[in-house]
Amino acid sequence: MAADPNASPPFWRTKTLEEMSEAEWESLCDGCGRCCLVKLEDEDTGRILATDIGCRLFDAGTCRCRDYENRSQTVPDCVTLTPDEVHTLSWLPPTCAYRLVGEGKDLPWWHPLVSGDPQTVVEAGVSVRGKVFANEDEIAEEELVERLVNWPLRWPKGARGRRA
Fold first, then answer.
1. 56: which of 8, 15, 31, 46 lies 20 to 30 Å off by Cα?
2. For the chain, how far is it from start to end, CA to CA, in angstroms?
3. pLDDT in tens, 22-31
């Protein structure tokens, strides 16, 4: 089915992050959960390292925050994304819609705003569903270094190309 030539382009192609309404901003989140994984900083290099450990408020089954509205009060180091933050945070996953749009790129085929289906994030291998070992309250802090993984900071193979 051909696209309607009279349809307006989607908001993420016509607006900057700063110009988006709150609803548009919130809809950019694909629900992958990658940003909700605990990250460590190498003290010597400043490099950010990802783990397969979720934040204490992260629900690994739904890939959503259990208390989104109050997350910053409950977890003081939780970063509330703003356009300024998006442009400065090196640890945002390369698949992150905020990062992509902030860099002037389009959303990929699996993003729910494009596909119309939140399940495509899982199908493309972008979601952390089934990949989280535990939440941070279930593991000793000194054990976090044993849970380092590379995949949250990379594009999954299934997410790269267009779905047939």
1. 46
2. 14
3. 999 999 999 9
